[in-house]
Amino acid sequence: MKTTAVTPADLARSVLAVAPLARAADLRVSDAENRRLVAHLLAGGVTTLLYGGNANLYNAGVGDFAELLDALEGWAAEETWMIPSIGADYGKALDQARILKERSFPTAMLLPLGFPATPVGVATGLRRLADAPGLPLIAYVKSDGFITAGDAGRLKDDGVICAVKYAVVRSDPADDPYLQELVAAVGPEHIVSGIGERPAVAHLSRFRLQGFTSGSVCIAPRLSMELLRALQAGEWPSAEAIREVFLPLEDVRDRHSPIRTLHEAVRLAGICDTGPMAPFLSNLADPEVLEAVEEAARALRDADETFARATAAG
After folding, report:
1. What angle do CA 244, 246, 249 make, to 5 degrees?
2. Spatial CA neighbour of 41 closest among 231, 203, 293, 220
3. CA–CA distance from 38 to each of 44, 82, 150, 273 (Å)?
4. CA–CA separation, 243 vs 237, rounded Å?
């Protein structure tokens, strides 16, 4: 498992797979099923796994955090970069940061808290949280005003944060003054697009962000990695064509909850049995919705396997 300090090259090396967390019927983390998912990602060339929102860590307890870290270390291959998340509230995040101090993870992501939080309070909290384990954090920016661009830049310069996961949804992702301010303050090499394949082309072509995160990569790792390669090479028409393949599942996710839909999509595509969702979330139950999820998920996996065969054939 990667234990060295985070660099911009690390952010560009792989799509950052924001993975769901498979659980057994008793809600304990399933070692066997999560290993299946990790193996699937590694086989597709993905080496960075981020456990955060899609893993429902918002609702995970501090008492389970050490066990989760043990699991991440156990699932990792030598080249794997495992990123846990802490928070979202400050007290929980601080307790988790103290546990991280005894571990070799090079960073963790702070989950975003909408209320009660202020931009100044978030900046102060990030400084204190990073100091607790003595390692820089990834700031997850999911809404306007979560943190000011100036504060984010100062936190980066002071070594408090090593990256920003930018996930503010826009009707036109290429028109984003707030992101432009963050790019100017933090540097594009320290920011990754954080909303999957949908805005990735706009974010990397317009703002030159360093990479992107994805949940659907858990179903189609080869295609998602090919999208990253095309974006890094500036092959915009090719990148746009690959992006289109992901949109049917992304559309279903947007209609029925990105987290809950991905949890079912990974199962229905035959990647691994993700099992029940931990409270306060719940599994999708509507048969018509599940049918739509399965159709989109299996089509995406078929496209990924077709791409893999074509690549192997030369």
Report:
1. 125
2. 220
3. 10, 10, 37, 13
4. 10
Question: Which of 84, 41, 85, 79 shows the shortest CA–CA distance to 218?
Answer: 41
CATH code: domain of residue 147: 3.20.20.70
pTM of the model: 0.97
Q: Is 1 part of any domain?
A: no
**Pairing relation of β-strands 85-86 and 108-110?**
parallel
**Domain extent at residue 172:** 8-313
Question: Which tokens in the block code for residue 206?
Answer: 């317009």
Helices first, then strands: H and E counts in the chain = 12, 9
In a domain, 98, yes or no: yes
pLDDT tens, the chain, 314 aa long = 999 999 999 999 999 999 999 999 999 999 999 999 999 999 999 999 999 999 999 999 999 999 999 999 999 999 999 999 999 999 999 999 999 999 999 999 999 998 999 999 999 999 999 999 899 999 999 999 899 999 999 999 999 999 999 999 999 999 999 999 999 999 999 999 999 999 999 999 999 999 999 999 999 999 999 999 999 999 999 999 999 999 999 999 999 999 999 999 999 999 999 999 999 999 999 999 999 999 999 999 999 999 999 999 97
Sign of the CA dihedral 161, 167, 172, 173?
positive
